[in-house]
């Protein structure tokens, strides 16, 4: 039980911080939304399972990220997640969009500068 509480607290704190720093009236896709869409990807990204339903989440997240601010928010969250979660294989994370048939103009990596690559999504 204690092993579940800590990650939930981290997600809650991150969601509160994301909401607090977002300008009012500007819709953004927050941390919790990204995590929800990509929950099924964790086993694949940590070599503990197959790709499974992961691509459904990747494609769904791609579809809802319509504005530049949404794309920057998703990019920043992905950057944070792959850099902070232990056991994530960076090569698998970077290749995830291609694996799922989604073309994004940046590499999912802890070193990505999201401000440079998110203005135009390539379909």
Helix-strand sequence: HHHHHHH
Mean of the pLDDT scores?
Answer: 81
The rounded distance between the terminal residues' Cα atoms is 42 Å
- List low-confidence stretches: 11-15, 17-25
- How much of the sequence lies in strands comes to under 5%
Instruction: Tell me how many strands there are.
Output: 0
| CATH architectural group | Orthogonal Bundle
Radius of gyration: 14 Å
- The CATH class: Mainly Alpha
Number of alpha- plus pi-helical segments: 7
Description:
Pfam families: Tryp_alpha_amyl. This is Non-specific lipid-transfer protein. GO terms for molecular function: lipid binding. Keywords: Lipid-binding, Signal, Transport. Residues 34-114 form the Bifunctional inhibitor/plant lipid transfer protein/seed storage helical domain. The chain has 123 residues and is an all-alpha fold. The protein has one domain: Plant lipid-transfer and hydrophobic proteins (Hydrophobic Seed Protein). Helix content is 60%, strand content 0%. It contains seven helices and no strands. The chain has helices spanning 2-21, 31-38, 42-45, 54-64, 68-84, 90-99, 114-117. It is globular and about 35 Å long. Mean pLDDT is 81; it is low at 11-15 and 17-25.
């Amino acid at each position: 039980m204690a092993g579940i509480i800590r990650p939930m607290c981290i997600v809650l704190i991150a969601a509160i911080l994301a909401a607090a720093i977002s300008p009012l009236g500007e819709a953004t896709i927050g941390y919790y939304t990204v995590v929800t869409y990509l929950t099924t990807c964790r086993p694949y990204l940590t070599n503990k399972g197959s790709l499974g339903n992961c691509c459904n989440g990747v494609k769904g997240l791609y579809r809802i990220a319509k504005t530049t601010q949404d794309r920057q928010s998703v990019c920043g969250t992905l950057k944070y997640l792959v850099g902070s979660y232990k056991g994530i294989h960076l090569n698998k994370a970077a290749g995830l969009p291609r694996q799922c048939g989604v073309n994004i103009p940046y590499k999912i990596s802890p070193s990505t500068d999201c401000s440079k690559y998110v203005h135009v999504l390539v379909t």
